[in-house]
Request: fold
Amino acid sequence: MAESSSVEPREGKRRDIEESSDIGQDSHSHLSEDQFQCSICLDVFTDPVSTPCGHNFCKTCLTQYWNNTQHYQCPLCKEEFTKRPELKINTTLREIADHFKKKSVPDKPEVLCDVCTGQKLKALKSCLVCGLSFCKTHLEPHTIAKHKKHKLINPVENLEDYICQKHENPLELFCRDDQMCVCRFCSETDHKTHQILAIEEESGKIKAQLRKTQTEVQQMNQGRLKKIKKIKHLVELRKRNTEKEIADSIKVFTALIRSIEKSQAELLEVLEKQQKAAERQAEDLIKELEQEITELKRRDTELEQLSHTEDHLHLLQIYPSLCSPLHTKNWTNISIDPHLSVETMRSALSQFQESLDEKMRQTVSTGLKRIQQYAADVTLDPDTAHPDLILSADGKQVTHGDTRQNLPDNPERFEESSCVLGKEGFSSGRFYYEVQVRGKTKWDLGVARESVNRKGEVILSPQNGFWAVWLRNKNSYRALTDPPVLLSLGKKPQKVGVFVDYEEGLVSFYDVEARSHIYSFTGQSFTEKLYPYFSPDSSTTKNTAPLIISTVSKTV
Reply:
């Protein structure tokens, strides 16, 4: 009884394990393969390891990631660790990952025994001599001397592909001259003078080449993973530098604004005090003058009365006192200065503004020089040009003609608005081009989405697939947002640069000669090809000059 009782628990435990295993397999079917992908190589885990923060990666991927960085941090959440964590393979996660890998490989169709009657059993081997597949029972005759020399292979469904159709013998040799599998009779007849190898030998060489190719592919993959990592690192570094530069610039400009506001307040206070002092001085002078005027009027009245008196004695008695000079001030050089002593400060402020403007020009110029390295060879596409437009033979100039041309209709051509697109479209990366607008009173420039409406009226706005600026009435510039933004430009641009960063969602316009920024569309989302967009606008006596796509000069 004791022995019997000791057996039961083991069997029960075995059943529990098996049932648990079945439940585990069922649970796998409800899980997504994405849950078992390494975020570095984007493939199902190979030897998965876990970081202290709880994220999982392939051991090789994480090891290489940490080998190329000075800081040990999680590639996913960026949590940093004081020392390099010791990596141990998560065996449970590896089993689940392996399960998904096996699921991703399509199962080979099951090959059945060709000899079985009734319910056919699974074939164990296929015989290239017999041309049949055998289960374990029916394969037994091949163990005896009579059939021992027959060529047995793992069971295959398309057995005829492994047999020479001409001689009905196994394809067990390979002809290197004709690069084909042959039987022994073929090697002694049609391929007698050719280089013949055993099929296993050629297969071994091919496998070696495949392993070499696989190694190269893996190295290429690793190289690209490193490139992705480097690009992400550079973007992160650029982001940190930008954030620091923004913070520093805000700090400098805030301090500068405060200083200017303080100086302005002090200047206003000084001017107000000077004005009040001048007004008090003027009041005192006017009061003194009014007192002297009163005294003079009194003397004048006395003199007028005495000039008509008949009392000669009285006149002679008071005459000496009347002839004595009045106690008045000499007002000849007394005045109020109408001028203010602020010219020095105004001059200093003007110089400061000029210096700041020059620094801004230098900053834009440096940025423009960097942007110009993305110069693209842009040419005009005649298939998109409105019939009123005339294109030069080299596709670099466009003008508005006086008469409509008879051109073939096609889906790409603009029918109502006099515009044209560039030949080449861009669906990634960055590109830049420059257009001479000298002598024009009206023009449009920018980029357009591939799917823009070309048959009806063109309304320029990002919502309609256009990112553009225009000139109207000689000097009215607008960025064609919705609603349009009026642009205040210090100088009239003679050459306009257009820069696009597709991934960044940026379209910027520059005055090339003034090395100044005109306008930028930011935070856009591009999903289609973008094409350079041009419109020389209607032809008038003052707007006959062409739009000219210029060769980009990268010198400042």
